[in-house]
Amino acid sequence: MEKQLDLLQGTLDMLILKAISLGPLHGYGILLRIQQISKDRLEIQQGSLYPALYRLEHQGWIASEWGESENKRKAKYYRLTATGKRRLQAETEKWNRMADVIAGILGTTREEI
Amino acid sequence: MLWNRLRSWMHATLQRSRLESEMDAELRFHMESYAEDLVRNGVGRQEAMRRARLEFGGIDRTKEECREARGVNLLDSILQDLRHTFRMLRKNPGFTLITVLTLALGIGANTAIFSVVNSFALRPLPVRDPLRLVVVAQQFQNSSFLGPLSYPDLLDYRAKSDAFAEMAGFSIDFAGLSTGASVRRIAVGYVTGNYFDMLGVQPAVGRLILPTEGQHLGADPVIVLGYTFWQREFGGASDMVGRNVKLNGQHFTVIGVADKGFRGTISILELDAYVPLSMISIARSENLWAKRDARGLQVLAYPKSNVSLEQAEASLNVVAAQLEKEYPATDREVKMRVVHERLARPTPSVSSRLPLVLSLFLMLAGLVLLVACVNVANLVLVRATLRQKEIAVRTALGAAPMRIARQLVTESVVLAVLGGVFGTFFGFAGSRLLASIRLPGELPVRFDFALDWRVFTFALLAALVTGVLTGLTPIFRALKTNLSETLREGGRSLSGGTDRHRIRNVLVVAQVCLSFVLLITAGLFVRSMGRAQNLYLGFDPHNILNLRMDPSQLGYDETRTKSFYKDLEDRACALPGVEFASLALSVPLGDSNQEAKIYRETTARADELLQAFYNVVDPAYFQTMRITVARGRTFTPADNEAAPRVAVVNETLASRLWPGEDPVGKQFSFKGAQGPYVQVVGVTRNGRYVFIGEDQQNFFYVPTGQNFTSARVLQIRTSLPPNAIEKSIEQQIHALEPDLPVYAVETMEHSLGGANGFFLIRMGALFALILGLLGLTLAIVGVYGVVSYAASQRTHEIGIRMALGAEPRAILRMTLRSGVFLLLLGIFIGSVLALSVGWTMKSLLFGIHPADPLTFVAVGFLLGSTAIMACYIPARRAMRVDPMVALHYE
Asked: Residue A71: its chain B contacts at CB < 8 A?
């Protein structure tokens, strides 16, 4: 297995929003989904997920309701709200621009200066 | 967005228990799901649960972060802090009692003083738009007084200046009000018709005086009663309206009662009734209505909304220049002044001492509070030191330093608020006590130091500032706590740590220094009072009884009044125990005075005019008062209307009018350039006449025989205690005229306690003394606390020293030395501060230099000896420590 990367500061929120945008999930599901789509390359401290979820809900980007899990147990499901959707879009664009800029800077060779 | 957050917060706050159980369920679901996945991958069930918990991380920490994320935590942790604080306070009743009491004393003293400031300078009058109300006054060249206006001038200024929306005048006098059987002496405001209308005052019953009334002399004999007077004298009977009453013997109709809160427009006086100015002739000469130099009206006005005070003043001065041209005899050299009503209390003046006095006492009270703060800060610090281990443990367990600091501030603020609550009670009691002080004399002074929202706000602010101030030191300490060291020491340190010592030493120095300043101020005031009491007044105030009366209140004419007074004087002199009896217009250093401009025959220019105060007296006056005559003679019964007009001047006036010449035989006029001129027949030694603090006052006397007045004060020199003949003299008056009201019956010594006499000096000394002693007590308790705590902390060290053979005396010296050093340092810094405070209050001191050596030495000795006692007791205890006990300590 490849060495896992620590999560960059402030990116967890974005990952949560992205994970939920693909369909409502409970907390544990979100963790699995992120690990799945990142192909286990990201290390997420399990406990740190929940304060982030509560913060996002407090800001109105995600909403929650109790439902039934795959193994017939009560679980709290999160889904993206309309403002959350816009937020995810904005964050994604911002991230891509940022990534371009950083990649551009890091890729600079001596001749280009 | 905001709504979302608010809703989530409300939700979280209001449904705490549901939220908690949901959070539990959610986190449990997570861990169990993870554990199930692990089991599915072949891990044993117990091991799976263990790993799930482990990989999840700190559950409590996560929950805490979740709560914080929802915004529950702020309120939550404040509540938690409060609970913790109250538990702590309950567990330490002694600590709680001392701190709360200390703060309550400090805050109470401030609240009481502030209630006085509030009533004198802050509380607006209960009138329309009170902050825009201004006082219009006249200032003569070279005069420090801002004087009233004459009625004709008021009419001109009102008509010709366009800077004002409205302008009204009033004058205060006493009158006899008879409603059938009895005559009451009341304080009456003679007001222009627009007075109530301009001020927006509403009637409680009936109606008030209308702007259309009082336009012509003698018109509209109507009277409006003051609310308090109506309640007190007539039980608030509504049938008073429409009743016919007699005021100074003239018929008036009661038309209404003024609004409940309205007491007239001089902040510290309460008027009993109001009549139109057109009825002024019942009390005073008609001159006040018609003559430009009869200046007797206090003028209030509202400038138009877009006009500044400067513009308003300028506009009035334009009119003043016109009037000067038109009426050169009366309106020369007049400058108009416009002052905010709140800055013109109690009367407008160029250099009022009131702001200085009020700010001085606020400052002194502030110092007391500061000493209290230092005391409590120190107690809290001691406790924080004892709790250092607790705090260190909490920090080690992950509590943020800010969280601990907040806990400490919460404790201080709770203490301060408790102190504030009790302090407000103390303040309330104090201001009630202050308000019960009665001024001698006849002015209807009403101190109303009631606590209103301003006072409460002040008390609250004082409490909060106190809370933060007392909380600061422990916070400072908490944030600097060295974890491992404290834990290793087990909460006990051998030497106490230099840093901790430093803070506590600073506190001790501050306490000594502040209380030194307080005591010096008190000492200066007390010394000043002592000087004033022994001052040579120019007359002998002992064994004199004063009685005031005014037969014109019964409608007496001049002839009848004269014969009444003649008979009265004869009867008084015939009483046993009476040495002399005389009649005068006013008493020295009393509430009312007469002032005039002095014209000499040689006066060329108006700016040479001297102002002088005077009294109208009869021949026996100088003997009754024991006034020393330096030259010439005093008055005789022969100085009557038929004889040449005469006067007696004091040495100051004589030397200013005729420097280097013999004043006897010289002439002057006090009634305008045209005369009549009076001839000086005698010169008296200088005394005090108008205000106890005055210096070299111009003063002269004229005889009653040539200057008729109806209101007079009968002064009787007795060989018995003056109060013993009070009854018999009043019997004599009522034998002559049964209905005549006699008022201001008091000894001359009592009368001297009035506003112009010793009142301010005595009150100043009393206030300063109370504050000074309060400060001293708090400081001594503080110093004692610090030194004994420091000594107890060193028990271990002392034990070692003694075990190694140190002499008990050496231990005593060692413990005392640090205390004495701090004491001397505090006194030194305090002296520097006290000197600067002394210089600013120089003008309030009486015959005492602000650096009065006796005061400094005495206060230094008092403070020094009590503080050394406070150090000595714990030092002695330390000296007697049994080394074995000390070493086993802990």
From this structure: 33, 36
Q: Which residues of B touch A76 (CB under 8 A)?
A: 22, 25-26, 29
**pLDDT at residue B408 is higher than 80:** no
Query: How far apart are the C-alpha atoms of B876 and B372, rounded to whole Å?
Result: 26
Distance separating alpha carbons of residues B249 and B281, to the nearest angstrom: 12
The domain tally of chain B equals 5
Q: List all residues 6 or more positions away from B254 whose beta carbon is below 8 Å from its beta carbon.
A: B206, B222, B223, B224, B225, B240, B241, B242, B243, B244, B245
* Full domain range(s) for residue A64: 5-112
**A-to-B residue pairs, Cβ atoms closer than 8 angstroms:** 71
Domain identity same for B519 and B562: no
Together in a domain, B251 and B295: yes
B window 6-65, beta carbon within 8 A of A: 8-9, 22-23, 25-27, 29-30, 33-34, 36, 55-59, 61-62, 65
Q: What are phi and psi of B299, to 5 degrees?
A: -115, 130
A47 and B8 in contact by Cβ < 8 A? no
Residues B597 and B705 in one domain: yes
Last residue of a domain, one of B26, B55, B71: B71
Question: What average pLDDT does the segment B22-30 reach?
Answer: 87
Residue B684 lies in a domain: yes
**What tokens appear for B544 in the block?**
């004199």
Cα of B469 to nearest chain A Cα, Å: 36
Same domain, B761 and B801: yes
- Is the per-residue pLDDT at B67 higher than 70? yes
Give the helix, strand, coil percentages of chain A, each rounded to 5.
55, 20, 25
| Burial degree of B494 (CB within 10 A; 0-12, 13-18, 19+) | exposed
Q: Do A58 and B9 touch (CB under 8 A)?
A: yes
Asked if the Cβ–Cβ distance from B26 to A76 is below 8 Å, we say: yes
Q: What angle do CA A46, A47, A51 make, to 5 degrees?
A: 125
A59/A83 Cα distance (integer angstroms): 10
* Interface TM-score (ipTM) > 0.90: no
Whether B79 and B63 map to the same domain: the answer is no
The pTM of this model reads: 0.71
CB B754 within 8 Å of CB B592:
no
- A interface toward B at CB cutoff 8 Å? 26-28, 31, 45-48, 50-52, 54-55, 57-60, 69, 71, 73-76, 83
Same-domain status, B248 and B333: yes
Q: Do A28 and B30 touch (CB under 8 A)?
A: yes
- The span from the CA of B511 to the CA of B500, in Å, is 17
Please count the structural domains in chain A. Answer: 1
Dihedral over Cα of B631, B632, B636, B642: its sign: negative
| Residue B133 in domain | no
The yes-or-no verdict on residue B720 having pLDDT over 90 is: no
B674 close to A (CB below 8 A): no
Q: Average pLDDT, whole number, for chain B?
A: 84
pLDDT reading at A3 higher than 70: no
CB pair distance less than 8 Å for A51 and B66: yes
User: Cα(first)–Cα(last) distance of chain B, in Å?
Assistant: 58
Nearest CB to B26 within list A27, A46, A59: A27
Interstrand relation of B250-258 and B222-225 (parallel, antiparallel or unpaired)? parallel
Domain that holds residue B841: 500-535+753-890
> Cα(B663)–Cα(B646) distance, rounded to whole angstroms?
12
pLDDT in tens, A12-50: 888 899 999 988 999 899 988 988 888 888 878 888 888
Backbone angles phi, psi at B376, to 5 degrees: -70, -40
A28/B33 CB distance under 8 A: yes
Q: Is residue B134 part of a domain?
A: no
Residues B531 and B423 in one domain: no
Q: Do A58 and B56 touch (CB under 8 A)?
A: no
Phi, psi of B165 (to 5 degrees): -75, -40
